[in-house]
Amino acid sequence: xxxxxxxxxxxxxxxxxxxxxxQLISVTELDARTKQSKLQGDASITFENVxxxxxxxxxxxxxxxxxxxxxxxxxxxYFAPGLAKDTFLGPLLKNMINxxxxxxxxxxxxxxxxxxxxxxxxxxxxxxxxxxSLTEPDKLLFNLKDVHxxxxxxxxxxxxxxxxxxxxxxxxxxxxxxSGTTKKIKSTYLI
Length: 191
What we know:
It contains three helices and twelve strands; from the N terminus they run E-E-E-E-E-H-E-H-E-E-E-E-H-E-E. The longest helix has 7 residues, at 73-79. It is mainly beta. A hairpin with a 3-residue loop joins strand 7 and strand 8 (109-119). The protein has helices at residues 50-55, 73-79, 153-156, and strands at 3-4, 10-11, 13-21, 24-33, 38-46, 61-71, 97-105, 109-119, 123-132, 141-152, 171-181, 185-190.
């Protein structure tokens, strides 16, 4: 399957196997591509009944395995155009994003077995852990373990004000743990 979506994104290839019934929605053998992006893997959501699927989203069981993804910034902006102007995330999204992710659980208690993303050639973040209460942002709680972040100055200098007196290193490597809520974050890092 190929085609152009109303937003302007051009799908150059789409292959998948879809299964759906009153307790399951499953996409396997997903291979979706645009001119620059590629998404491959499997995803499923299981639920006791359609009523639970609609009204108790946080209790539905989720499985996501994307052993390989490559996302071009241009394709992200079709779905989230505001990110192009975001002063915090925008600079990170100027390069291709390559990676993989494995997630299991529910939106009430999500286990991130593995997240690995590389932004361009110089910035990488890896972690695993848990995220709870995704459907209730005020109660969101996360505990990310084995966090590994590596970046070079040109990729992270935008986080420091230009008129700052700080001297930045050529690169930064952080390994540690990050946990908390949307209001309070605790981290332990080895630099």
